[in-house]
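Hi,

Apologies if this is the wrong queue. I'm a grad student, and the batch job for CAAX amino terminal protease self-immunity from Gimesia chilikensis produced an output file that my downstream script rejects. I'm not sure whether the problem is my script or the file. Here is the sequence I used:
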Amino acid sequence: MVAPENSPSEDTNPERLSAHTAADSPIFESEDQESAQELDQFLDQALQTAQGEDAPRPHDGSSGNAAPPGPGLIESICWMFGVFGAHFLGIMLFLVCGVIYLIATSNISQDPDTFRKEIAQLVEGHPLEAAGVEQAVFVFIGLIAVGLRLGKRPLQKLNLQPFAFSTGFLLFICVLPLALMSGELYRIAFDAWSLVAKQIPILERFNEMQTMEIVKDMAANNSLWSLILVIAVFPAIGEELIFRGMIGRGLIARWGLVPGIVITSIMFGIVHAHPAHVIAVIPLGMFMHYVYYVTRSFWAPMLVHFMNNAFAVSMAKMATAIPESAASLGDETQPVHPLIVASAALFLAAVCVQLWKTRVKYMTPQGEEWTPGYPSTEQPPANSPVTMMREKAHPLLYAAGVFLFLIFLVSMAAFSPQQEAVTAQPEAMQLIAF
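Support response: The file is valid. Your script probably expects a header line. Output copied below for reference.
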């Protein structure tokens, strides 16, 4: 799907240039030569990072010793706060447009107090429109920022190659187990948070930042397709670009697969503001990043993100129209049965094993796995003699996955709470959108 540019010429290798410079300088002794080489390499890599380029890779398709790409931990934290800034700019744009609208319709008051009330009523009366402008601005800024930071070959670095249909089906059936587990984690975290907030009343202000409460309010007065666009499509693009495509790329390259995924997912959780929501989405972020790594396709985490949020808003919409149908998915005042949680966890564990066994690899003619010199999901250079390979899992592993999924479905049917009366309200849903 992507035609990446050729890799930089070997003549620009910073190690070769720095060694040549040190060797031609007679004033350096042996120890001074090593120090000069290290300094030159550092400066060359800093220059390449500033230009948005990675260190050169070998042309023979073998693994190189390139310096890890950015961002590092400090820059990643800056990107995380940049997400807050982008959303703030989106809200400001909506407010400016709202003021212009009020002025144009001559519905604005000169009294400051009345003016503030009118603006508040405008936001409260159009929550989906406000969220849509906010998310659209966030995606727009994210696309530009990530494109500039990645520099050359941004699509190659993100890796937009398609993934196997069987993998897509597997990710599809993971949505419900993921949603129920994250919902139960949210319930536990929210109960604990409520106990703390009662002791420190100022912390109750965080309850105003509950994303799902806002989604439930919007579901009653807006179409499903508009909800999916704003709550599912925009976040799947913007948040995946920032966290999996940018922050995770640098942290995994520097810290390794597990620490990189964990740190990135914690940052991903933090931007969701409410402490209970933060805790609930961290495991989801870890799963999406794992999917990205094993499929070597940026489309895979985007699909998981989209399906989870689309499922959550669909259930929220259903709860407003047919409460008795949504009630069977769980009342947040009641915990999910432990056997449902356990069966979901076992099934997801089997899925992770299967995804690892069938993970995508780039193999050289020598039979070695190609990497750019650090853990990465990016594609090899276009002129590298590298072949993409995806092994098949053992048939028993497929059978185990089917068996565990059936156990999950049976446990849901057997242990889901039955509502004697239709008392479920939109706020009874415990599916998490992120």
